[in-house]
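User: quick one, sequence for these tokens?
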């Protein structure tokens, strides 16, 4: 049986690569898939990463192929070493994402193919001569970042290659909009809608004073990318001030957001919290959220 071969990505690989990426996305976020256009755009530029993406000096995409079948793929980034780049990213090489098939009867040893591809990734990072080597799993889909617990095969590849999880663990939560609390009127409290930092802001006011707000982002997908699963939004910010009116205000604001999201045609809402913030997680679960996955952020190569 022929061994898998590693080579640079070619445009003719685009459909197979998109299928491989979508199998990984689907294991994290239900009902979401990305288009070929989304994948190709992500290989060239990540417009949502408006802070770090301009710091990238070089991008390389590699695939492992067996009998014309793409069985693994990786996207590498080299951040520039000049003073415009943030200190944490300066002169760093990163495996931006890594995806691979799991064992199947019709495929060769997928671990062998994945390890072969990872060896090629490390060789590319060595050629770049970067000062540090990082890894992530940031695919071009909402809530897919770090290394999700739904990808034990990717975690195993990273660990066999010498990458170690050195950052935080976050919990991704999801709620059906219909399960969120109601937005029944509250005496003395009004809500207004404005543009916020991370989406549409709904601000609760008492006697004209802001006592809390929630921001929901309904633009998780760029229109030209034609992504399936666009009935998703996420919570960008949720803040409650200390106030005599604050009791239950968080649930009330979630209800206000639910009303707005229904008008937007959104039926599911995502939220993200540090795994160590048990109080925040409990508040969300009491409002109808449930844990979707845990994801481990920031991996560093420590052979």
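Assistant:
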């Amino acid at each position: 049986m022929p061994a898998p071969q590693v080579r640079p990505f070619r445009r003719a690989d685009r459909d197979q690569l998109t299928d491989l990426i979508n199998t990984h996305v689907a294991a994290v976020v239900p009902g979401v898939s990305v288009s070929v256009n989304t994948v190709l755009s992500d290989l060239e530029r990540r417009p949502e990463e408006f802070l770090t993406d301009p710091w990238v000096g070089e991008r390389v995409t590699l695939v492992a192929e067996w009998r014309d079948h793409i069985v693994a793929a990786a996207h590498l980034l080299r951040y520039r070493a000049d003073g415009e780049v943030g200190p944490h990213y300066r002169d760093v090489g990163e495996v931006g994402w890594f995806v691979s098939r799991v064992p199947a009867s019709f495929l060769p040893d997928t671990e062998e193919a994945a390890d072969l591809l990872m060896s090629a990734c490390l060789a590319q990072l060595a050629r770049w001569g970067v000062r540090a080597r990082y890894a992530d799993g940031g695919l071009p889909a909402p809530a897919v970042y770090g290394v999700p617990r739904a990808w034990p095969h990717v975690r195993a590849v990273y660990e066999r290659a010498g990458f170690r999880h050195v950052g935080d663990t976050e919990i991704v939560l999801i709620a059906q909009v219909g399960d969120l609390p109601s937005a029944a009127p509250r005496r003395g409290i009004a809500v207004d809608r404005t543009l916020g930092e991370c989406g549409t802001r709904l601000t609760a006011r008492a006697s004209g004073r802001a006592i809390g707000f929630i921001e929901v982002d309904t633009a998780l997908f760029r229109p030209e990318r034609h992504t399936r699963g666009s009935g998703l939004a996420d919570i960008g910010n949720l803040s409650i001030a200390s106030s005599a009116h604050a009791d239950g205000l968080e649930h009330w604001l979630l209800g206000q957001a639910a009303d707005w999201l229904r008008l937007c045609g959104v039926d599911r809402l995502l939220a993200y919290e540090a795994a160590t913030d048990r109080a925040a997680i409990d508040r969300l679960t009491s409002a109808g959220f449930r844990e979707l996955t845990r994801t481990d952020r920031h991996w560093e190569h420590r052979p």
